[in-house]
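input
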Amino acid sequence: MQLAVEYDPRPPFDTGTPDKAGPELQALALKLLAESQV
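output
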């Protein structure tokens, strides 16, 4: 969710941008967003 809305707070949550999330988490976020729009 944090990545989907690009919420980028200070730690302990540090995945609010695609660069910080990494490719695996980006792929999972895109998959979950696509499935939720069915």
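quick obs: The mean pLDDT is 81.
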